[in-house]
Amino acid sequence: MGYRHGELERGLRILKSMSAFARDVIQTTLLLQFTPKLFHPVMGPIYALPNTIHYRQSRAYTLPLVQERVENMKKKDADPNFEWEEPNDFLMWHIRSAHNENNKQEMDPEMACRRLMPLGFAAIHTTTLSITNCLLDLAASPTYSATIKTDSNALHPLETIRSEALNIYLGSNKTWSKANLARMIRTDSAIRESMRVRNFISRGLLRKVVAKDGLENKREGWRLPHGAFVGVAVHNIMHDPELYPNAEDFDPFRFSRMREEQVLRAEEQQQMDKVAKGAPVANGHTTEEKGVKREDDRTQRLLEHKQLGLSTTSEAFLSFGHGRKAWYVITVYTLFFASICGTDSQAALVASLSPTNLKCFLHT
């Protein structure tokens, strides 16, 4: 579907403003670091003036769009026959999520516009680093088995991800949605593993002690004074061989296999419980329809083990801070791989994304 000239021009202007905003945020931060704190309240707004201009420029295009979508969404919810098809993009996901949570602050069109700018800043730099690292890791990887069983016909990781993306894309009427992206278990695992191995921070969850009396742990024998900063040794944790076997190696399907192992153990336990209760156990000879349903049920169980998913942090995985909105940027990561792996013909993908060609492409 083509774009009208006005829509294309609006999109280009928004992208230009967001890119300029992301660049000038870093410049403002550097300037503040060399400015005495006494003058921050005065100089801060002056340094941030370019960012204010960029936001207002983008707001002229995004605010009417957000207002229109909020109004149409309310009409559609009130009248299912209202002729309007809900867009399938991040902005609409944000609006719908705020509506479902009854978050009036986030439902405010002005606030939605404000969220877009810092989100772009957070996504542009970190996404570029993370995706580039993952592509290089995948291109340089040997063949790995994507399943917990030994597979003599194991494919290269890029081929495995390509197959997963194509199957989901073609099986969903050639459309991407948040639910479809969540089904890309092996792609999710590859990105998570790359972020673990190639994390570009040594300290994470950096926090400032705001308690006037500081913080004290008598059991461990340490005390942090007011104003001190404390963080977590992210790199050391995510390269700990006791937590991750062969911790220095990039194993793209490390986490997807762990999720499959959890599901397999749960299935075996379920079968054992049935035997103990005298219930009939499936003999494996099912109709095609039952087989499809069984595969769908298995996929659903895999999705339920979200603690091993990319958007979930834990004591052993801290590539980014704890937060409820991490899935926003994670969706961008997965959508990128889904787009380049699952939206073109198989022949074009083989030509453009073979490991050799990918290495040449990334080095140019």
What would you note in describing this structure?
- The protein has 3 domains: 135 residues, no CATH class; 156 residues, no CATH class; 46 residues, no CATH class.
- Helices cover 62% and strands 4% of the residues.
- It contains 15 helices and 4 strands.
- It has a two-stranded antiparallel ribbon. Strands 2-3 form a two-stranded antiparallel sheet.
- The longest helix has 31 residues.
- The C terminus is likely disordered.
Brief overview:
This protein has helices spanning 5-33, 40-47, 49-78, 90-100, 104-107, 109-139, 157-170, 178-182, 185-197, 234-238, 254-277, 288-304, 326-342, 346-353, 355-363, and strands at residues 204-208, 215-217, 222-224, 229-232. The chain is mainly alpha-helical and 364 residues long. A two-stranded antiparallel ribbon has the order 1-4.
SSE layout:
Blueprint: H1 5-33, H2 40-47, H3 49-78, H4 90-100, H5 104-107, H6 109-139, H7 157-170, H8 178-182, H9 185-197, E1 204-208, E2 215-217, E3 222-224, E4 229-232, H10 234-238, H11 254-277, H12 288-304, H13 326-342, H14 346-353, H15 355-363
Antiparallel strand pairs: 1-4, 2-3
Helix pairs in contact: 1-2, 1-3, 1-6, 3-4, 3-6, 6-9, 6-13, 6-15, 7-13
Overview features:
15 helices, single chain, two-stranded antiparallel sheet, 3 domains, disordered C terminus, 62% helix, mainly alpha, 4 strands, 364 residues
**Uncertain stretches of 5 or more adjacent residues:** 284-293, 344-364
First-last Cα distance: 31 Å
Average the pLDDT over all residues and give the rounded result: 77
Query: Which bin fits the share of residues in helices?
Result: 55-70%
Structural class: mainly alpha
Work out the count of structural domains: 3
Our Rg estimate from Cα atoms comes to 24 Å
Number of strands: 4
The main pleated sheet reads as: 2 strands, antiparallel
